[in-house]
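Review box. Two proteins, two foldings.
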Amino acid sequence: MAIATIDPTTGTTIREFDSLTEDEVDAALDRAARCFTDYRKTTFEQRAGWLRATADLLEAEADTVAAMMTQEMGKTLAAAKAETLKCARAFRHYAEHGAAMLADEPADADAVGASKAYMRYQPLGVVLAVMPWNFPLWQAVRFIAPALMAGNVGVLKHASNVPQSALYISDVLRRAGFPDGCFQTLLIGSSMVEAIVRDPRVVAATLTGSEPAGRAVAAVAGDEVKHTVLELGGSDPFIVMPSADIAAAAKTAVTARVQNNGQSCIAAKRFIVHTDVYDEFTAAFVDGFRELVVGDPTDEATDVGPLATEQGRDDLEKLVDGAVADGATVLIGGHRIDRPGWFYEPTVIADITPDMELYSAEAFGPVAALYRVDDIDAAITLANDSTFGLGGNAWTTDAGEQDRFIDEIESGQVFINGMTTSYPELGFGGVKRSGYGRELTAHGIREFCNIKTVWIA
């Protein structure tokens, strides 16, 4: 794929970029390695100051940054600005709490025959971040803020369709005062990733993206015995039980499915509804989809913009068309929109069976798969009948049902009577083929630390 900004609203190529040469990548890794030698010795106070300065710049430039992201991948301006401000919040969070998260952790010295014993968290070194296009800033900042606060340095291989966002990230960190080489964007194709993972100057890698991409990076890193964190796809269930506030559940369900034009790993994708409230929920859910405004993402009235790439739109269309051919029922939508750009109608589809590809695939776009179940056991069984395990939602006011959903849904996170989202204050990550490791909170900042045991006689 060419490294280029292509406006998904029109399909027009805005700007193309040259890939770095092997020599340029080598020079960047050398800068990173040399930077780490000194950067690891900086204090938490110094790093926190740079993080706060980055947050200040993001807040001041939010409108400009939002316009850039909207042009590159088609999210609405409101969503893009909210993402920018969320990134600023994450930088401030780690500036405020990072030192405490990495403070020496005392152990029971008497129990181990020592005068003093503790665990110390120390940075690992140069970490490669491979990031996707759907949240061009936030996906990267989830790694950057904690990693830099911990004393690591990073190099970024971003998605090829968001090069301006990728370059902005390294630029804003530089302007905030971080040392030269502390974080560098590498405009490269996927074919160069393996060599970077294998490079001895790179000690670990983190990837957010597709399952095939995660497998590839993890396989190389495993061969080199290097630590990885993977956040891959998701096909999150959204379960509605009879005790739920059906109107609130249906309204939230619409947002949960079409957020970011439906292109979010933690967007609800499978709507599993108890038969007693199925008709009521479905009517409200479909009405909510009918009211959505699809159009230019720079228009304040727009709810859903285009898919980020033409291939993404084509893949989504193939999933829906295949399910319909095999007997699924489209309740609303179901077609690409005949206009320039990569638009697809917000779609609700029912009568899906396990033999359809849509049953097991991650539909990355504004397509909701609707299922009817007879009881909580069937709801949990269907929710877990997926290779993914990223997030999940359950709507019920019954305490016993809530406990069962929390205990039995196979996922990295469960939201009760609310929409799955991410916060710096909550751990983020999945199980099964949604990946491993955690981002955000203290768990995220410690992922790329050497947890060193200290014993003193």
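Next protein.
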Amino acid sequence: MIEESKRLAAYTAVDQHVKPEHKVIGIGSGSTVPYVVDRIVQQGNGLNKDRVFIPTGFQSKQLIVQAGLNLGDVDQYPTIDVTIDGADEVDKRLNCIKGGGACHLREKVLAEAARTFVLVADYRKNVNVLGTNFKPGVPIEVVPFAYAKVLQNLHHDLGSPNATLRMAIKKAGPVVSDNGNFIIDAPFDRERMEDPYTIMARIKMLTGVVEVGLFCHMARAAYFGNEDGSVTIKWDDGKVDSVNPTD
């Protein structure tokens, strides 16, 4: 059920936003993104031979290469036609939490570079207030030298007493991002998460912070696959649509 809802969201988003005239496409990270690449491949070699695909990290790079698509870099293409990415959670105003996979720095670069930024996820990620279902907190990429100081700032100054350094699984030590940095997960209470932009701005001002996994005022639309086979589309103007894909 979950995988099918991810597929429905990804396919619908690609159908509506990856058009023949789009030649530079950003590919995000997460468990919904393989379905994005799958649908793009289905558009055919005729369209894809003239396109370049920009990855946000190792996973999306591998998906692009394995699909036989043209791999590019944001250094070469600083303006992207459309970027499609997953999310850990999306609120009613299309603010979202990203960084569960520790790729949010590169994801935000590609989101900002895109003329159109679109989110795809399953129904569990569709919430009114961030932090409702995604409990680890806001991912924060921080240079290793500063992690202890940033943790202290979060604990005592910014209202996240349970912020912790993310530790690796099956590896001794912390998670290290593709950029060689550490990741802090900082949960905030519901009241603070009603205004994620303010939290993002305050964290970003801390010396040592590289990027914050709060994406505010960036997405054009968010696509959520539902249990009943429909797809809910939330737009940046507050409009909400529901469609029933046929394939």
